[in-house]
Specification:
The complex is a heterodimer of chains A (596) and B (217). Chain A is mainly alpha-helical and 596 residues long. Among the domains of chain A are: 51-198, no CATH class; 223-268 and 276-436 and 468-527, no CATH class. Chain A contains 20 helices and 9 strands. In chain A, the strands form 4 sheets. In chain A, strands 7-8-9 form a 3-stranded antiparallel sheet. In chain A, a hairpin with a 2-residue loop joins strand 8 and strand 9. The longest helix of chain A has 38 residues, at 3-40. Chain B has 217 residues and is of the alpha+beta class. A 3-stranded antiparallel sheet of chain B has the order 2-3-5. In chain B, strands 1-4 form a two-stranded antiparallel sheet. The longest helix of chain B is centred in the first third of the chain and has 23 residues, at 31-53. The chains are: A mainly alpha (596), B alpha+beta (217).
């Protein structure tokens, strides 16, 4: 096949994937936003949308994929010839840990269910005999630790080889059993239900909302400018969607190229050198690598202003006009700050291309450590650009109804609404790329894992090329979603600014501070350029130490998460008013029949 | 105290000096305070999401009785209404399933929201009830105007209007659907399913009729 055509097809695929990523994360964000509101107000949150499945179908959905997964791993072990010879140690490690994890996790899920709904059969009774389900977690962790210790202790001995055989074959068998048993148990326990509701923890709710907006009345005020009124949502929606094109989602993927110019997919699993990127058969994981890079982002983000202003003008409504004016002046003001805060970063990275910025960060340290002030200010300006709380003056419902989209309904309103969420996703992706290392994760380079401080190397582990790229991709997505979530939390924490406060923050605080940041950065760059070799090596060690700090912080966060999940629930006793006592006397609220 | 006792010029204000709260760099830059606020929001988010996902959530209203979050999925699940809940009105029936209402206009007079409209009709010549009472040709209640105060029920001398259906007005999508006419109001039954009431009714002309009678007096 011609390589050029493959690359063109892949570009289309990449653009599609990026658009899908932005829209889906935006949908997730609408869900999380409502969940957050519910969490603060002790409500259930979005969970009403449901697809009812006939019980046999639900059982099939549980069991058939489980059968496929359970068959796949033993088949892989059986037919992979390579595995039997050299790589058995690593394979044994992965497979046995996977098997142990699935065993205790399945047991835990069932035990939790049994605890909530009561014992129904002898297996339930057996699980309940262990007592607290947390004990299953502790036993699982102990099993992980023991097998890891055994593997490390008997490494490169004959006993070790025998253990590795046990790990591979026994692990595969146990894994299959755990997956099949869990799915079978789920299918068995719903056998008496007339139907099973597919709710996906409320994720269907935004989908139902989207569908609803399509069927709503498309209202245009009688004296409005019909054309501009209709085109304004498009103008604010489209730029928000396409700015992600310049952000690379992962490291360049290297296919090998054979003599005829075709692709060699086997190269993906090979090890590549630490330095340099392949020139032939390279697939950058961004849609386009523009040399103007971030300027493209600013140009298109600026177009979004036009949409808001047009919507305000075309609606023939005083409040819309006020909202449109507010949106225009706010976004123009913060555009200035946004550009100036990034200049410090450009000076350090020496490029406008996002890919080059990430590579600088991968070689040295993340942007947040060299430009902390720039990070905070850019974050504030990005939140202001997305016109969300605490900067939602353009729509300020307590003052001007709903601002520039007062006269919008149905899908046109949904497009404004969605553009806001997509702006959150794109600004988070850009923040992650410019300040949080993009797809770079601490101590992971193109060759694999290498823990090194300065010149001293403590640990190296080569990893296949595709795995490194996928880990980077997942890291980038995780960073983006985390930043999105921080923006949601800001929305649910801070009250709205007053308009003069907003303008004062933009023009009199952030703008001078960003100019000062440029001056400071320039002086520091001159200082580093004039410094001796000793100072530079010290800087390198400091950069590696920041990466170590990031890695430790990540581990700490994971440990804290596990401890938090294991913590027993708080028991609170609340005053039960007479209406609640009455409801309780009638049999509770959950399954009470309608008394009317 | 008259105004003239005060000396001219600005009035001297006496009072306790309250020290201004100290606003350090942390408060002035706003960033650490934001971080604190975010931490509180995040703690609530994680706590509540975990409790919801694991079914550990204590009921905010009736913690001791029911587990889980106390929001109910309304049309499928309903809270039991108290026995004296005032729901949508109904017009009670007589034995012959005509309305008990005698069109005295007491309810529409008592109604503070003025949501009841009655057009009274006379019984035809020769009917034993003619001259004693009338009947409602139209009996209209605008359930959207109604404030559910129950004054109409209190005012009714014949136990003809009741609010014991246990139904609350469902959400319609246009206003005219909230205008309940006589036949619809007579179609509702009480919570026990009957269209009548416990109070007995004695028609004019019957032996048990307690009032003044054209024939006897």
């Amino acid at each position: 096949m011609n390589l050029d055509w493959v690359m063109v097809a892949l570009s289309g695929l990449k653009a599609f994937a990026v658009v899908m990523f932005a829209m889906n994360v935006a949908v997730l964000l609408t869900w999380a936003d409502r969940r957050q509101g519910a969490a603060i107000q002790d409500r259930v949150g979005p969970n009403r949308a449901v697809i009812w499945l006939p019980t046999p179908l639900a059982q099939g959905l549980a069991v058939l994929p489980a059968i496929a997964v359970a068959a796949a791993l033993p088949a892989y072990v059986k037919f992979n010839a390579e595995l039997r010879e050299s790589e058995i140690g690593g394979a044994s490690l992965v497979i046995s840990q996977l098997a142990i994890f699935f065993v205790w996790f399945t047991a835990l899920a069932i035990a939790g269910k049994v605890r909530n709904r009561g014992i129904r059969n002898s297996f339930d009774a057996f699980l309940a005999g262990f007592g607290d389900p947390r004990r299953i977690v502790y036993v699982g962790f102990a099993a992980h630790a023991v097998t890891l210790a055994l593997g490390a202790f008997f490494r490169n001995t004959s006993t070790g080889d025998a253990l590795a055989q046990v790990g591979v074959y026994g692990g595969a068998a146990v894994f299959s059993f755990a997956v099949l048993f869990g799915a079978g148990y789920a299918a068995y326990s719903i056998r008496h239900e007339p139907r099973v509701g597919l709710r996906l923890i409320g994720l269907l709710h935004p989908a139902a909302d989207g569908l609803k907006t399509l069927f709503k009345e498309d209202f245009i005020p009688p004296k409005a400018d019909r054309f501009l009124h209709s085109v304004a949502p498009l103008i604010s929606f489209f730029p928000a969607l396409v700015v992600l094109g310049v952000v690379p989602f992962g490291d360049t993927l290297c296919f090998g190229v054979d003599e005829q110019g075709g692709l060699l997919l086997s190269e993906l699993m090979a090890f590549v050198p630490k330095e340099g990127v392949c020139t032939e058969g390279a697939l950058p994981l961004g849609v386009i690598d523009l040399n103007v890079g971030v300027l493209y982002f600013f140009a298109l983000a600026g177009t979004g202003i036009v949409g808001a202003a047009l919507a305000g003008w075309a609606s023939d409504n005083k409040y819309s006009l006020l909202g449109g004016l507010r949106a225009a002046s706010q976004m123009v003001s913060y555009e200035v700050t946004m550009g100036l805060t990034l200049i410090g970063a450009f000076m350090i990275y020496g490029s406008l291309r996002v890919d080059a910025m990430i590579r600088w960060q991968a070689e040295n340290t993340w942007g947040v450590f060299v430009q902390p002030l720039g990070f905070v200010m850019f974050f504030a300006a990005a939140v202001a650009e997305s016109k969300r709380i605490p900067f939602d003056l353009p729509e300020g419902e307590s003052e001007i109804v709903a601002g520039y989209y007062t006269e919008y309904a149905g899908m046109k309103f949904a497009m404004f609404f969605f553009a806001e969420y997509i702006a959150v996703v794109t600004s988070s992706a850009l923040l992650a790329a410019i300040f949080l290392g993009g797809w770079h994760l601490p101590f992971i380079n193109r060759a694999g894992l290498e823990i090194a401080i300065g010149d001293a190397v403590y640990f190296t582990q080569q990893l296949p090329h595709a795995l490194v790229v996928v880990i980077g991709l997942l890291g980038f997505i995780l960073k983006t979603i985390a930043l999105c979530w921080v923006q949601l939390t800001i929305r649910w924490t801070l009250p709205r600014f007053r308009y003069d406060q907003l303008m004062r923050l933009g023009w009199r605080k952030l703008l001078p501070a960003s100019l000062a940041n440029i001056l400071l950065t320039g002086m520091l760059i001159l200082l580093v350029q004039g410094a001796g070799a000793k100072f530079l090596s010290g800087l390198e060690i400091a950069a590696d130490l920041t990466m170590l700090a990031v890695a430790l912080l990540g581990i700490y966060a994971v440990v804290q998460l596990v401890l938090f999940l294991l913590k027993p629930p708080r028991k609170r006793r609340l005053y039960a008013p007479s209406a609640a006592q009455f409801a309780a006397a009638m049999g509770g609220t959950r399954n009470a029949r309608m008394q009317a | 105290m008259s105004q003239s006792n005060q000396p001219l010029g600005p009035r001297k204000v006496t009072g306790k000096a309250v020290p201004r709260p100290k606003r350090g760099a942390g408060v002035q830059t706003y960033v650490p305070e934001i971080a604190k606020g975010l931490a509180i929001t995040m703690r609530h988010f994680f706590q509540n999401t975990k409790e919801m996902a694991l079914g550990q959530r204590n009921d905010p209203t009736i913690e001791a009785i029911d587990d889980g979050v106390n929001t109910i999925s309304y049309p499928e699940q309903r809270r039991p209404y108290p026995a004296r809940f005032r729901g949508v009105h109904r017009l009670t029936h007589r034995e012959d399933s005509s309305p008990r209402c005698v069109a005295c206009l007491c309810c529409s007079t008592a109604c503070p929201a003025q949501c009841i409209h009655i057009e009274a009709g006379e019984y035809p010549e020769g009917d034993p009830r003619r001259g004693y009472e009338r009947f409602p040709k139209r009996f209209v209640i605008d359930e959207l105007r109604c404030v559910f105060c129950g004054f109409c029920v209190e005012a009714c001398p014949c136990d003809a209007i009741r609010m014991d259906t246990g139904i609350h007005a469902p959400p319609y999508d246009s206003r005219d659907q909230f205008i309940y006419e006589r036949d619809l109001l007579m179609g509702f039954s009480g919570r026990d399913g009957s269209h009548g009431t416990q109070n007995p009714r004695h028609e004019p002309g019957e032996a048990t009729h307690p009032g003044i009678d054209r024939e006897k007096h």
